[in-house]
Each structure stands twice: as C-alpha cells, then as structure tokens.
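Workshop exercise sheet. Pairs work together: one partner reads the sequence aloud, the other fills in the structure field after running the prediction. Swap roles for the next sheet.
Pair: D.N. / O.F.
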Amino acid sequence: MDNKWKNDREHIKMLNALATVSSLGMMAVFDFVLAYWGGNWLDNYFQTGDHSWRMACISLALLTIFLTFFRLVYNTMLDKDEE
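Structure field:
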C-alpha cells in the first residue's frame, strides 16, 4: 500500500511538472505576441515613435517567463528536499 501511494505521488509530481513546462512554452509564445502588438498599439496611441512601450511590454513578458521558470525549478528543489 505504501509503495502504491509513493508511485501515485511521483506520477502526480511528473504530471505537474509537465503541465508547468508546457504552459511555459505556450506562455512564451502568447506573451511575446501580445507584448509586441500591445506595445505597438501603445506606441501609436501615445505617438512615442521610439518603440519604448513595445520594449517595456516585451521586457515584462520576459520577466514573467523567467519567474515561471524559476518557480518550476524552486518547486522541484523543494520536492527533492522533502524526500
């Protein structure tokens, strides 16, 4: 019984990591596309002409991707420490 519970727990951990990694890939694509278009719209709306809003939005997208990747690594390290 204990061995089955341990196997189920490992299976859940693997599925959780897979879900996080796959969402990271989708988030990277959607974040960059939305940041590019949203920043372009803001640059046109405020008539900055130097793509400052576009670069700010892309930087924010990079930050969110980095933080998600960091959370994945951090949670994996915590799971290893618990065992």
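Discussion prompt: DSSP finds two helices and no strands in the chain. What would you look at next?
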